[in-house]
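Entry type: protein chain
Record version: 2
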Amino acid sequence: MGFLFLIKFSTNKEKIIMTTLTLSPNQVKERLRVALKANVPCFIMGSPSTAKSHTVRTICEEEGLYMIDVRLSQMLPMDLN
């Protein structure tokens, strides 16, 4: 089972490029490490119970980073403004 991994970055201030990849958990870990070091925001999407949060938590622990777990399903529409 794969994750959908969205990388959003821009080559200049006027153009935003998005790339979507279907990856295994290990591939997500590799790319997420690179993105973190480059300060590039990422979005990981997948079916429930596919270890998305666990994968990110593991990377944060290994890199000495603090993780804030925000669940969209627990937010109100007004929280997204």
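Comment: The first helix runs from residue 25 to 37.
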